[in-house]
Amino acid sequence: MNTKTRFENLPKRDREEVLRIDGLLSSRAPSPEAYTAWVLQNLQNQREHLTKRTPNSLLASALHGLKSYFCDWCIVRRYLDDDLVQLRLGVDSSARLGFLMRIAGGEEYSGGYDCAHVFDLLLALVVEDKSVIDLFLNRFPAPFSSGHPATVLLSNGLYSALNDDQEAFASLEKRLREKKESRFFRAMYDCLLGIMAEDLSAVAASLGEMVKLNRRQEQLNSSMQKLICLTAHAFYNVCRRTCVTRGIAAPVIPDESTWHGDFQELIQSSETENCFIELSSVNPVLARWLKELPATLNIEELLTNDY
Question: Is residue 1 domain-resident?
Answer without folding.
Answer: no
